[in-house]
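Sorry to interrupt, but I need a hand with the structure work. Could you write out one complete protein record for me, on any chain you like? Just paste the record in under my message, thanks.

. . .
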Amino acid sequence: MLETLSGGIQTINSVMILALMAAVVAMVISLLVNYILAKFQADVRMVLVLAVGAMLYILIISKGSAGFDSLFIVLSALVYLAGRQRWSYERLFASIFLLTLVLLTFSFASYHFQYGLSLEMVLRNIDAALQNKTLDLSWLGIKDEAGFKEFRRNLEIIFSSAKLLYPALFAIFSAVLALWTTPVFLWFWKRHQGAVPQKGDFHLFYLPDKVIILFLAALAMVLLDIEYDLFWARFIGWNLLLVSLVVYAIQGIALAYYFLIQWKFTKYLALILLAAIFILGFFSLMLLMSVWGVVDFWADFRKIQKNGSSALKAPSNE
């Protein structure tokens, strides 16, 4: 259990780093495309039709393995639509999250169906590469047989954890990418086109109360797995627990963002500070923010349950 948990943490950290890298690429591509489209006042419907057509073409040609290419194309069109229609933070975040999750799931399912994916296959490829001297692991500090055996062992642990947590890992990747890109896209449209988003702001992000039921159910299944070693409880419980921790981490970050604004930080300085802490912390910070988000369900620090989100406004520090 401890080895699986350790492998899961390593895998989640890797996924969060990949999501951050993908978010940077997505922001660069989408902002460039949106700047050009805005300059020419492109028609929203035509942009969406062309984007969906390009996505389908890429997926058909690549047989489903080009999820990122199609994601960047459709994301650019989605951001253009959001800017022209003045979507709120919550709506754009949910759209980016769902789009990323669907494309990742489809791409992975297609690749897995065509080529298969197993630990044995991965290890065979590594062994063959080492024998043919086409793979050098010295940059990882692996220079002898003992180091290689340890590397294989860690790979087995990480692979088994990833195989168990695929649904949660896709959700974590999608949530992190949406979390990073959404404020930047809204900032772009507000600065360059004067498109003020509809009501709703990140500092007021608050999950429906019923989400706590999913969190508690997941926690119960995890405890059931630890006690009785049940695969169904392990698979459903851990995946549901990780997903609920991610969404509560987003609420925790929104809460931290709210307090930074209350303490007279500008909005952009608050976002930069949170971003820096998030990069340094990754999983440990996500866990801390998740706990804070869950506590906020009972403590209601921003008085959202009492007053409603529209009744609470943080200072508009720019």
Summary: Confidence is low (pLDDT under 50) at residues 309-318. DSSP finds twelve helices and no strands in the chain. Residues 38 and 80 are 8 Å apart (CA to CA).
